[in-house]
Amino acid sequence: MKYKKSVGAVLTAGLLVFGATQTFAEKKMFSDVEDNAWYAESVQKLSEFNIIGGFEDQTFKPDQNITRAQTASIIAKALNLDLTNVSNPGFKDVPTTSSHYPAIAALTEKGVFSSGEYFNPGDSLTRAQMAKILVIAFDLNSSQLKTFDDVNEKDWFYEFSGKLGALGITTNESKYNPQDYVGRAHLAAFIKRTIDYKRSDSIDDIWDTWQGWDNTEVPDTVEEPVEENDGDNDVIDEEETGGKEEVDEAKLKEYERELDNAADDIKSAQKKVEKALDELEEAKEEDDEEEIEEAEKDLLKVLSDLDDAIIKGEATLEKIRKVNLKELNLLQSVLENAIRKAKNDVDKAYANTFDKELYEEEIDDALEALEDAREDAERAIKENSLNLLQDAYKALETAIEEAEKTFEMYEDSTVDVLEDEEKELEEAIEEAKDLFDEVGDLLEKKAEDQIDYFKDLLDDAIDALDDALDEEDKGDIYDAREKLEKVIKDAQKALDRLEKIDMDALIDEIEELEKAISDAEEELEDSK
Questions:
Q1: 8 A C-beta contact, residue 273 and residue 306
Q2: What are the SLH domain coordinates in residue numbering (predicted)?
Q3: Contacts of the segment 192-197: beta carbons below 8 A, 24+ positions apart
Q4: Per-residue confidence (pLDDT) for residue 226, from 0 to 100
């Protein structure tokens, strides 16, 4: 399991709107942004997330300097700030009628901008000012500062530019060029790098909940209206529309419940992992070999449970994404984030907790389980029994899944001295998969034959009952009813067992048997 680093889904208190979530717009293409331009990806991503916009003529104007007012509106969108209730900062040059007023007011209240008599909204933004805005707005921290030849320790922006350099948000080497103006393309690049950094750090915040940020393709979750220029080179706020599929309230609640349950299951499994890790640490502190071995086995079990919860969560996400409802975006993001964090926890536990002896034991156990399942499968094939084939099919499936988990667990660990055992397990898994397919083919054929057998029995029993009813022979009618009842009972037992076979190829046949049983029950009831 090669999982990437993840973080949680908690919103930053005080700065961000609780419950807010960023959604996609239709993918935009600007006529003056070439695909191979160094800033193309940043512009595209921020445009898709409605953080930055273009102009009515479908251009972006990447080289145009950005103003302080425009920057405020863009940063407010990137932070998902609540702009509905803001306090007037009292700038004489920022009227409350300005489209940028809410953003400027909110950011000033948060300390991103300094209060004073004038804001100078039309001034071009400098790189020094940009550094301060990004560091304060996104709460960027670094224990080290990068130094630049043109930035003195006494400069007011020394710490801000130093943090951007240390975190890799600015890629300049020797000079920072603090008094240079910031172009629209440069601001887009700086904001994207900042959000990328915030999503990769260990602090839970709103950017971790943005679904699709890392995707290369953007789903059509939002249809965006035509862009308009507000008169000073910024795009007005765009109204988001809902998903394309309408759904009733009951169905929506069901989807919400599925997302909540999936996230809760993951969190519950994570708590068990945390408890198991604590118990293992206690055993190691006491230096009790037996307790350590037992604690390691317990940890492996709960990690396996967490793996299962992750897989189920991903299946739920895939299902809900197809529904394409804006109302579910926040819960989707929470589940996405829970999955990312859980995967990270699994990786860390596998990589740092277990030693060579335990991995060797786990590989041996996996090989033994595969061998047992293989022997049962070969016996089932030889006897060609439906019941044995069904049991062997399930046993092989379970053994393969567990063996693959063990194989992936070892691959993700820091242990690298079991190459021969690793290769043996990999080969055993492949052999088991081939046998699994063979058993599956035989099982499918036997199941289809049994379904046909009971369908024919039901038809014959119904025909016998119809004949008895036509002849109005009470004795024959009684016998025919008894026979039909027995066939229905036997067919239902067979159906119950067949339904436990997880095979897509049998879905239609099983449904046909269900219908045949239902028709027979109806026929029996009508005859009374």
A1: yes
A2: 26-89, 91-148
A3: 192/41, 192/42, 192/45, 192/46, 193/42, 193/168, 193/169, 194/134, 194/138, 194/140, 194/169, 195/78, 195/138, 197/140, 197/167, 197/168, 197/169
A4: 30
Identify whether 173 is part of a domain: no
**Structure-derived torsion over alpha carbons of residues 439, 442, 447, 448, reported in degrees to the nearest 10:** 140
CA distance 311 to 212: 19
Task: Find out whether 334 and 261 touch, Cβ atoms under 8 Å.
Answer: no
Residue 144 falls within a domain, yes or no?
A: no
The answer to the question of residue 472 being in a domain is yes
Tell me: do 186 and 261 sit in the same domain.
no
User: Which is nearest to 3 in space by CA: 405, 339, 303?
Assistant: 339
Are residues 224 and 80 both part of a single domain?
yes
Domain that holds residue 302: 249-441
Does the residue 141 lie in any domain?
A: no
The per-residue pLDDT for 358 is 67
What mean pLDDT value characterizes the chain?
81
Looking at the structure, do residues 355 and 484 belong to the same domain, yes or no?
Answer: no
| The total number of structural domains that make up the chain | 3
| CB neighbour list of residue 33: distance below 8 Å, 6 or more residues apart | 39, 40, 43, 44, 60, 62
* Burial class of residue 67 in the structure, from the number of CB atoms within 10 Å of its CB (0-12 exposed, 13-18 middle, 19+ buried): buried
Name the region of 278 (left: φ>0; alpha: ψ -120 to 50; beta: rest). Answer: alpha
**pLDDT 10s digits, 222-261:** 333 333 334 343 333 332 323 334 557 788 888 888 888 9
DSSP annotation string for 276-334: HHHHHHHHHHHT-HHHHHHHHHHHHHHHHHHHHHHHHHHHHHHHHHHH--GGGHHHHHH
- Does 23 lie in the same domain as 91? yes
Mean pLDDT of 479-505: 87
Q: Which residue, 36, 18, 24, is CA-closest to 213?
A: 24
Q: Tens digit of pLDDT for each residue in 348-394?
A: 776 656 556 767 788 888 899 999 999 999 999 998 888 888 889 98
